[in-house]
UniProtKB/TrEMBL annotation:
Gene Ontology molecular function, alphabetical: transmembrane transporter activity
Family: Belongs to the ABC-4 integral membrane protein family.
Pfam families: FtsX (PF02687), MacB_PCD (PF12704)
Ubl conjugation as UniProt keyword: no
Every ABC3 transporter permease C-terminal domain range: 308-421
Lipid bilayer topology: Multi-pass membrane protein
Natural source organism: Pseudobutyrivibrio ruminis
Sequence ranges assigned to domain MacB-like periplasmic core in this UniProt record: 21-267
Name the record gives this protein: Putative ABC transport system permease protein
Keyword terms, alphabetized: Cell membrane, Membrane, Transmembrane, Transmembrane helix
Compartments, as annotated in UniProt: Cell membrane
């Protein structure tokens, strides 16, 4: 009951000095709003990054050949010596089909897809005044199934296309709009000539897929570069790498496989079986899950650092609250003396002024939360992210507001409680 009375007294005091109350709350409002806005933007970025990386494949493992680390010594002047120049990769350093097949045979239950891709290059298809920008990339059968493009017309690649390295391609609907005026029937079976770095490559269109423009915006679809898919071995033949091994490839693990643990298994298998006698190169495996975790940690660290900097204004706001409470005590010295003369204990006087301090901070905190959510949402939307308000930040902000009220209100409240009632009644 006493607490409720103190709250009503505090609200009455705020109402009687609205301008002073608002100025007192300003530091709290700015501090809370800054923290909430920063954490809202940070949370929005984190959600967006996680979503995009999950779409890229949280259970993907990139297996690649990398140079072995060697010890180097550094002189006092900063010069390095000891390792020397490493030799460039030879044929025996690459991962071969036999290595991959042997691995897949042993761990078939853990692998859903083996993704192989090879980029021929970015170029232009030109037919008179018509043109289209494309990125020619070769995919293996698993990669096409994993990507699962939406085929609008024609077909996807068949087994013969992969085995015989056929010069066939699947183009986007943007490509068809530019080169065939949107007529997919005219596009299917037609030959297209692509110029890449002065070389010309001819492919025959067997399918048209729907281009996903959600990740890219352009003023004109004519200037949008889209992927032109070809069979993997077709790309390797044109790049003259058909007889080489692989410098890297990607594994997609099954749902029930822990990708981070399995990454160590893959690395150990290849290095033990095939690279133990290679002095210069080894196989290293990167987990997409670990990349997501690292990215989230990095964003969280930056977000926390900015929030702490913004939170400094909360301390300034708390000092402002303490200052106003000291002024309030001076103004109400006679009131305090009267209450003590009527039997009010030091504890009740202390509780009254701490309650007033907490009410000021909570009201300032609530205004700051509303302002912070609005500012954070506007900023996230302006930056192109979907606004994601951090509920934990709001809870922390409210708790922090109460803590500031108690911490910075205790000294003035304790000073009021210790006033001598006789001297307080004499105060003019």
């Amino acid at each position: 009951m006493l607490i409720m009375e103190n709250v009503l007294l505090a609200l009455a005091g705020l109402k009687s000095n609205i301008m002073r109350s608002l100025l007192t709350m300003l530091g709290i409002i700015i501090g809370i709003a800054s923290v909430i806005a920063i954490m809202t933007v940070g949370n929005s970025i984190t959600v967006m990054v996680n979503t995009q990386m999950q779409e890229m494949g949280a259970n993907n493992l990139t297996v690649g050949v990398s140079a072995k680390s060697t010890s180097e010594e550094t002189t006092s002047s900063g010069l390095h010596f000891g390792a020397g120049n490493r030799r460039s990769m030879d044929t025996e350093d690459y991962i071969t089909d036999d290595m991959i097949d042997s691995f897949l045979e042993e761990y078939s239950d853990n692998i859903k897809y083996t993704l192989l891709s090879s980029t021929v290059g970015s170029g232009t298809a030109i037919d008179g005044d018509l043109y289209a920008y494309v990125n020619v990339v070769g995919y293996n059968e698993d990669y096409m199934e994993y990507n699962d493009p939406e085929i609008l017309a024609g077909r996807t690649f068949i087994e013969k296309d992969y085995e015989n390295a056929q010069k066939v391609c699947i183009v986007s609907d943007y490509f068809v709009n530019n080169m065939f005026d949107g007529d997919t029937s005219a596009a299917l079976g037609s030959a297209v000539e692509i110029s890449i770095n002065g070389k010309y490559y001819t492919y025959y269109i067997v399918g048209v897929y729907e281009y996903d423009d959600s990740t890219w915006s352009s003023d004109s679809t004519e200037d949008t570069t889209t992927d032109l898919y070809i069979p993997y071995d077709t790309a390797r033949t044109q790049l003259h790498t058909i007889n080489d091994g692989y410098e890297s490839f990607t594994l997609v693990t099954t749902i029930d496989t822990d990708s981070e643990e399995f990454a160590d298994t893959v690395e150990t298998y290849f290095n033990t079986m095939y690279y133990s006698n290679n002095d210069d190169y080894e196989v290293s495996v990167t987990s997409m899950a670990s990349m997501i975790e690292s990215m989230t940690t990095m964003i969280g660290t930056i977000e926390l650092a900015l929030a702490i900097i913004a939170g400094i204004s909360l301390v300034v706001g708390g000092i402002g609250v303490m200052n106003i409470m000291l002024v309030s005590i001076t103004e109400r010295t006679k009131e305090i003396g009267t209450r003590k003369a009527l039997g009010a204990t030091n504890g009740s006087i202390r509780l009254q002024f701490i309650t007033e301090s907490v009410v000021i901070c909570i009201m300032g905190g609530l205004i700051g939360i509303i302002l912070g959510v609005v500012l954070g949402s506007v900023a996230a939307t302006y930056m192109g992210y979907s606004a994601s308000v951090s509920i934990s930040a709001i809870i922390i902000a409210v708790a922090f507001s109460m803590a500031i009220g108690i911490f910075f209100g205790y000294y003035p409240a304790n000073k009021a409680a210790k006033l001598n009632p006789i001297e307080a009644l004499r105060y003019e």
